[in-house]
Amino acid sequence: MIVVTGALGFIGSCLIRKLNDENFNAIVAVDDFSKTEKLKNLEGKNLKEKVERTHFFEWLADNQKEVEFIFHLGARTDTTEFDVNIFNELNLEYSKKVWQACIEYSIPLVYASSAATYGLGEIGYDDDETKIKHLKPLNPYGQSKQDFDLWALAQAQKPFFWAGLKFFNVYGPNEYHKGRMASVIFHAFKQIQDTGTVTLFRSHNPDYIDGQQKRDFIYVKDVTEVCLFLMKHRKNSGIYNLGTGKARTFLDLAKNTFKSMGKEPQIKFIDTPADIRDKYQYFTEANMRKLKSIGYLKPFTTLEEGIKDYVQNYLMQDYKHF
Fold first, then answer.
1. Percentages helix, strand, coil for the chain, rounded to the nearest 5?
2. Where do the domains of the chain lie?
3. CA–CA distance from 221 to each of 93, 189, 306, 307 (Å)?
């Protein structure tokens, strides 16, 4: 059995689809199944069992001999949430229990970290573990991921294989439920449908003109490819960046969304909301040398290819699921 926590979520549900496509069908989906608006993310997927998040550790104690791998992707991911207690409970303490269970039962582990740990990128976006203690996240979400990374690295006992993945800006199908936290591509598509225009944030940084803010956008299908690679690889434990290694502008993103919809670009700019303005990342770009050095050599989907697939095969198909 393969366990996926956060199974109802964006990346978790896409990973289950990928596992099914690779003929892994004994999947145990762990999540809060009272969140009915996300249940459609598991429609059409082959699962062995669904386990409530609060009952997972009891279930694991009873079934650990059958568990081959754990992907711990469940987390509170809202960067606008400032209640530290929520993040401590769901992102830090729960993750510690997963880690400790993987040691006790000799189960390999891949868990979700985040590029939000890099803050404003003052010391770059390098996944060298000696630099992690110097990172300065901008919000409690990023801090919770940073806190767990540091805790994991400090442990004398570790799972026999483990990897923490610092996800950069992931986009793709199954993110419809994320609201404000959904990708800019998702929001751009909806804006074009509703108004014919896309609204981007104006730059408040003199080093960047409007629309030239850059992020490392990675298609969720590439994320699932890397997860499968690590499940099969099972050596070279550590923390890894997961982006494409190539930053692209928001203007590129908007223009490609219009192009994929067969429309001429109509783009306007508004002020960045005051509540996030001083915590806004103007540039992110993953240093991907470390993952490549352990043998992951597949090319990443370009922004043009990823947007075209997402828009034409999912969003324009009435939010079809992956």
1. 45, 15, 40
2. 2-171+217-245+284-301
3. 29, 19, 9, 12
Instruction: Indicate whether this model's pTM tops 0.90.
Output: yes
User: CA 113 to CA 54: how far, in whole Å?
Assistant: 21
pLDDT in the model for residue 117: 96
Closest to 265 (Cα-Cα) out of 199, 173, 315: 199
Q: Annotated catalytic residue: which of 96, 158, 178, 263?
A: 178
- Residue 178 annotated to the active site: yes
Q: How far apart are CA 137 and CA 320, in angstroms?
A: 34
28 marked as part of a ligand binding site:
no
Task: State the CATH architecture for 2-171+217-245+284-301.
Answer: 3-Layer(aba) Sandwich (3.40)
Tokens standing for residue 181: 């936290």
Active site residue 263: no
Containing H/E element for 222?
helix 220-233
Closest CA to 306 of 186, 209, 145, 207: 186
Catalytic residue among 94, 141, 219, 310: 141
178 is known to lie in a ligand binding site: yes
Q: For the chain, which residues score pLDDT lower than 50?
A: none
Query: Is 17 known to sit in a ligand binding site?
Result: no
The whole-number pLDDT of residue 86 equals: 79
Q: How far apart are CA 255 and CA 304, in angstroms?
A: 10
On average, the pLDDT of the chain sits at 94
203 is in an annotated binding site: yes
Is 76 among the annotated ligand-binding positions?
A: yes
Burial of 157 (0-12, 13-18, 19+ CB in 10 A): exposed
